[in-house]
């Protein structure tokens, strides 16, 4: 860490005699005295730049040599005397295009030849689906996950609606599979991300386990944050805890192999276990276990996608307005939009996990910061996941609570599987109104959004603005470079300004 102290030229950060870090982005935080620097872990000409491996350090500026840079928020002074406050533990790699990864891996498999232990395969979603069906498991329910997206997409595209239900939350999927078992005597497949384990613990322990109602079901759990893999901070914690959570719930599990024979063996073990224990069994699914499978592209119905709508909202807010962003791509887009506008991140709380809870976080803030306008930027999947929050908010009579729901009718952040959000027989506005929201409105066009945001600032809350959008977003979206703790600290400073 000490090697980073000293004079810091723009572009190249000498870390030791042999290693140079290339400064990729710079960002000032907390006024003039601290900054965060992201850098490649190798010179830009090497492979590291290609895969965008970077890390982050937090530096304190002790002395700045270039006067004209003073006061500019996102500018790293050309030459600064710096002290390293912390080396980032948060690393990130650009999303690898799964199709490239498959072809690259095939080449590597050929290179390792006879060393079968070095071969890395991918499961074909179709073959795995057929194997499940051949074991009598052909009823599917759950909440989509990024690691399961190819499998979920296959299930969505080939399974009739009567045998596949995308549930509002993961606990509901356990209950649904329990009902299915009691009606048919068969075991359903419940899929979820490990972030949703918390949502299933109650119905799992009080309904499904052998010592209560004893309901066999196969849990297919996407293992985000698996130890040894890079991931976002919240996933690292959850990933580490995942085997322990399953074990303490008494759920037998194994990792799903990445090749068909192994997967079929795992399914055989799962079926035998469910037959003998008469309880759930779990398969943990690692990153990129499946070959890519994409849902068919749908026609675009609206002028904007989530990113476009978000930009219109943010650009219509005032300086002191507070934003709580929901889980997934929305908060990542919000972070990048602030960077693009040369703004800091202190106005935004990025709810990196806790899907469905952004609105309750915003409500808690609104209650105790009555002079500020609190905007919750939500997603349809997230609102559906904990829709009871609408009742809590509607009955709260908190006038400065402003809810903006970007409804793209799908779980876009994890593969775009549909929600009920844009279904003809479903209406968020009617629900919110019936829950006690004082005003509800809808917008789709950029000008309508700006007008609606300005208007809702003057209205007494709780107010809901639903913005209907197309699905899809940018493929090269980055991830927040501020840690959750840094985000909270900046945000609390911003909230402390009470006028
Ligand atoms: C409890 C829990 N379940 C599942 C996930 C995985 N997940 C992250 S974002 C997301 C989809 C969110 O959908 P929506 O709110 O509609 O926003 P969109 O991605 O469409 O913008 C899901 C399922 C999670 N983070 N937490």
Automatic annotation (TrEMBL):
Q: Biological process GO terms, please? A: organic phosphonate biosynthetic process
Listed GO molecular functions? Answer: magnesium ion binding; phosphonopyruvate decarboxylase activity; thiamine pyrophosphate binding
| Pfam assignment, any one | TPP_enzyme_N
Superkingdom of origin organism: Eukaryota
Q: Which reaction does it catalyse?
A: (2R)-hydroxyhexadecanoyl-CoA = pentadecanal + formyl-CoA
Where in the numbering of this chain does the Thiamine pyrophosphate enzyme TPP-binding domain appear? 349-467
Keyword set, alphabetical order:
Decarboxylase, Lyase, Pyruvate, Thiamine pyrophosphate
Q: In what residue span(s) does the Thiamine pyrophosphate enzyme N-terminal TPP-binding domain sit?
A: 129-239
Which SUPFAM superfamilies does UniProt cross-reference here?
Thiamin diphosphate-binding fold (THDP-binding) (SSF52518)
Q: Which InterPro entries match?
A: Phosphono-pyrv_decarboxylase, THDP-binding, Thiamin_PyroP_enz_TPP-bd_dom, TPP-bd_CS, TPP_dependent_decarboxylase, TPP_enzyme_TPP-bd
Q: What is this protein called?
A: 2-hydroxyacyl-CoA lyase 2
Q: Which organism is it from?
A: Stylophora pistillata
The organism that produces this protein has a lineage beginning with: Eukaryota, Metazoa, Cnidaria, Anthozoa, Hexacorallia
